[in-house]
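2024-03-11 09:14:02 INFO worker-7 job=invfold-0412 stage=load source=structure_tokens
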């Protein structure tokens, strides 16, 4: 709070049309008689100085630079928060009945690359509206799962293990053995490892539902 001294009294500089004067016994100060009384509680509560030409006041006295004034042209006190524009999907944005369905032919497709592509579309990471905490992805159906391909010697060297939970219940089989027994489980196992929760339906052969 600034004070302006005159021969008769001292005035506090406040916003326009609010000037406070104090009439009390005067004491000499630098050769001029000035009021020695303390300002009232109401006057001491005024701590905002007069705004400069390159500043504006908004939202209860917050000072905003002049070059940012354009951000407040369309807003008002009861309007939306212009600082919070983060979009979050609503319930209508991820309705299961309106999601996309993909049918993927696994014939001669490399297992790892096929599984990663399926996982991306199931999670919806290919969409601009992707949100990690919301199910924004699509549904994927894989056909011809028994014709998926692997590189190198993985057909005989890649192992799949399962356990019955009993002592000595470990079962181990190769890629070829599992492909002959349950071919759709190979892709299911690969995709499930890339997902929080899987939503893929696998079918042997070309005929789906």
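2024-03-11 09:14:09 INFO worker-7 stage=emit residues=209
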């Amino acid at each position: 709070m600034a004070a302006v001294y005159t021969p008769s009294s001292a005035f506090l500089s406040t916003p326009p049309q609010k000037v406070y004067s104090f009439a009390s016994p005067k004491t000499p100060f630098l050769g001029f008689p000035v009021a020695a009384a303390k300002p009232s509680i109401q006057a001491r509560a005024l701590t905002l100085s007069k705004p400069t030409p390159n500043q504006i006041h908004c939202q209860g006295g917050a000072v905003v630079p002049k070059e940012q004034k354009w951000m407040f042209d369309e807003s008002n006190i009861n309007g939306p928060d212009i600082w919070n524009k983060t979009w979050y999907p609503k319930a209508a944005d991820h309705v299961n009945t309106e999601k996309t369905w993909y049918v993927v032919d696994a014939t001669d497709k490399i297992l790892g690359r096929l599984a990663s592509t399926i996982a991306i579309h199931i999670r919806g990471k290919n969409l601009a509206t992707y949100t990690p905490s919301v199910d924004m992805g699509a549904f994927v159906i894989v056909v011809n799962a028994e014709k998926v391909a692997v590189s190198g010697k993985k057909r005989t060297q890649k192992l799949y293990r399962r356990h019955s939970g009993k002592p000595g219940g470990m079962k181990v089989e190769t890629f070829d053995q599992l492909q002959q027994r349950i071919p759709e489980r190979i892709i299911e196992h690969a995709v499930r490892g890339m997902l929080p929760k899987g939503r893929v339906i696998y079918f042997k052969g070309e005929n789906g539902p």
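2024-03-11 09:14:09 INFO worker-7 stage=report msg="The chain has five helices and twelve strands."
2024-03-11 09:14:10 INFO worker-7 job finished
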